[in-house]
Design brief:
Blueprint: H1 2-56, H2 63-78, H3 84-104, H4 108-111, H5 114-149, H6 153-160, H7 173-176, H8 181-189
């Protein structure tokens, strides 16, 4: 009888440890997924000065966009990962890069420049990786939140003080819209 009680207690302890470890693993997956987003946006920030240098050789009157991209990049690097301000700046940077590519359509010599093509390819790759990292983050958050809402993980999460996480969402509606090449040229001509 004592062996049965000891075995039951050992099994309960192992089960409790497994539940707690599962909650912690899920929390760490969310943090890892967000770190991937942060790493990709850092790579984007590193590429922007090179793109700006390349493009400014061709487009002197589009300096306003170049300056804004550089300013946003500088501000975003200083902000803490996951902050709403950084997410907002990341959205503006993405929109600015799309605008830059749309405006570049009007410069045939720029479009065929090896440097520009290489930078454009690198930025497109980074943008794709950021999108993939955001999807991975949202999947990790969904798994984490599902765990927090189901028994027995909800008990462990409550004891550890874990709360539900929010999905990564686009907060700027302009980022959801397609870039209009016509509007970019009108903006450039109005300067």
């Amino acid at each position: 009888m004592n062996y049965f009680l000891a075995a039951a207690m050992a099994a309960a302890i192992i089960w409790i440890v497994a539940v707690f470890n599962s909650v912690i693993r899920r929390k760490n997956m969310v943090e890892n997924a967000f770190a991937s987003i942060d790493a990709m946006t850092k790579r984007r920030y590193d590429l922007i000065p090179n793109l700006v240098d390349c493009v400014t050789e061709y487009m002197s009157y589009e300096m306003g966009l170049m300056e804004r991209l550089t300013q946003w990049r500088t501000e975003a690097v200083k902000l803490s990962p996951g902050s709403p301000e950084k997410q907002s700046l990341d959205g503006r940077i993405g929109e600015g890069i799309r605008s830059l590519f749309a405006v570049a359509e009007g410069y045939p010599s720029l479009r065929t420049s090896d440097n520009f093509l290489q930078l454009q390819g690198a930025l497109n790759e980074v943008e794709d990786q950021i999108a993939a990292a955001r999807r991975a983050f949202n999947a990790a958050v969904t798994d984490y939140n599902n765990g927090l809402q189901t028994f027995p993980w909800s008990v462990a999460a409550g004891i550890l003080g874990y709360q539900e996480k929010k999905w990564f969402e686009v907060t700027d509606e302009n980022e959801r819209k397609a870039v209009s090449v016509r509007d970019q040229f009108r903006t450039a001509e109005g300067k």
